[in-house]
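Feature request disguised as a bug report, sorry. It would help if multi-protein outputs had a clear separator. Right now it looks like this:
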Amino acid sequence: MTNKALRHWAPGVAVIAAVALGLTACGSSDDSGSGSDTKSGSADAVQSALAKGGDITVWAWEPTLKQVVADFQTKYPKVHVKLVNAGTGNDQYTALQNAVQAGKGGPDVAQIEYYALSQFALGKSVADLSPYGAKDLSKSYSPGPWNSVSINGGVYGLPMDSGPMALFYNKKVFDKYKIAVPTTWDEYLDAARKLHKADPKAYITSDTGDAGMTTSLIWQAGGHPYKVDGTKVTVDFATDSGTATYTKVWQQLVSEHLVAPVPGWSDQWYKGLSDGTIATLATGAWMPANFTSGVPAASGDWRAAPLPQWQQGQNASAENGGSSLAVMKASADKELAYAFVQYADQGAGVQTRIKGGAFPATTADLDSPAFLDTAFPYFGGQQANKIFSASAKAVLPGWSYLPYQVYANSIFNDTVGKAYVSGTPLTTALKSWQDSSVKYGKDQGFSVG
């Protein structure tokens, strides 16, 4: 539930990417004392910090954390946690970066989405959690989220949730027009044609250009358009095989006007999901709560299915969305901050968040009968977690985001978005995105090829 619409990054503010090349953590030059992640940082120090108590501040917008904070303070009465909503996504990142530059006013813990985390890690504004034993938790999480927090040999956050992808489809519409649930993207294309021919007002999905969905589907196709080694970066959509696989199908959907020209998360989008004129949605497993709250009139009409495959017989998935909780390097009490992060993301707080509607990244919960057997009334009683859990295990390894992905996503509509309104081929538009991303990276001092 952490990755909704593509949020726009404001290039005019202090850009996080620049931090990778010179700024230190929140202006702090003192990494000694109780807050050190190199000297004092250890599992024993974390327990000592809990026994001693103290105050920490957490910046996050995820709603289930409110109860997690209450439970944590009940268990550890000497600890006080101040939970602050400093904005959603990029709004918070802007405030966080301003605090980094000012050297004051920042939190001890921050919610940071996976695609943005490497920017803060390279900027040395979040702490490596390895000294506290975080590396020992690798098997506790599904591969996609763990890969996202593991950067350049360190662990820069613990996964809070995940977004393994699935295909949500309107069963009522599919049944009405006798359309089979597609198991491949070629079948999906055929279903799109059949649906739109039967009802010219109905579309298989909506798309006006979404960076998150595009990169997720390229990921699922085995693509690796981004390669990152510290500040050495490669951006290649032009020759990447996964990108070619994606564009081959998606170009036909766009060219044949088989996708609704409706922006995601708009009123028109919710209306289309409700009345059946938008019949499917390929997105992360955090979506069910948004259906329940945003599309209540269609309760019982929708179901979840495995994500269609690019080749018949494959079993590949990708992540779309999700967040970590990271400890800021300038925190005065990193041990106490890490204790809260571990409680929320690996301890008792995980169950609290699941009960609140979050989708976990923890393997124990993804495999538990209670989780797998949960019936979703909205989906006609379907045990949809079985589909989501299987998707989490099928996420392809090795995906990387740019160390300035927030900025890259912000220019997606100015580049790739043209393919949806001007007839520009997707391959040309993606090459334009590539060129702009390369130029920006070089301007920020990255070595980009």
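(second protein starts here, but nothing in the output says so)
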Amino acid sequence: MYRLFFKRFLDILVSVLVLVLTAPILVVVIGILSFQNKGAVFFFQERPGFKQKAFQIIKLKTMTDAKDSDGKLLPDNQRITKAGKIIRRLSIDELPQLLNVLKGDMSLIGPRPLLFKYMPLYSEEQLRRHEVRPGITGWAQVNGRNSISWTQKFDFDIYYVDHLSFVLDVKILWLTFIKVVRTEGVNQSIDRPMQPFNGKN
């Protein structure tokens, strides 16, 4: 019952409530980013969702589009802006994803939606992370976020798929709040963000 109906009801209720409560913060942050990024406030990217269906994830734009001499984007930690560091540390950049939740593309809680380029690298077991809607936060995020290996993250994702429940979701929401307050596990190290998945790490 929870998986089929109540979880979606909870997603909508909490998303609306959080958007209303954080609206003043979002207005200020959007104003800062609009000035800093010369009007470019939001970041859109196609991600695989429930049953691998594509959707456009929405985030606040906290990085520049700086590229190297070969025309490739520089690493995240070299492109993130000063304001972006603070916004990401506080996870404010994730708030627009509440619109994805309201649209039904995402859930508040579930495996994080990753990049399509990783799909061919997944094992059959890892592909099971798409059996539920992707989430803004999840079991992997509260158990290390970007400070753990990809293999560990996928193991946590599959655990969530197999044990999804109201009690587990409440636990994840509470632990997410604690993680955000403490700004834990954002990167693998102080100067190195999470490295791309290569099918092994």
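Even a blank line would do. Unrelated, but nice: The first helix runs from residue 2 to 36.
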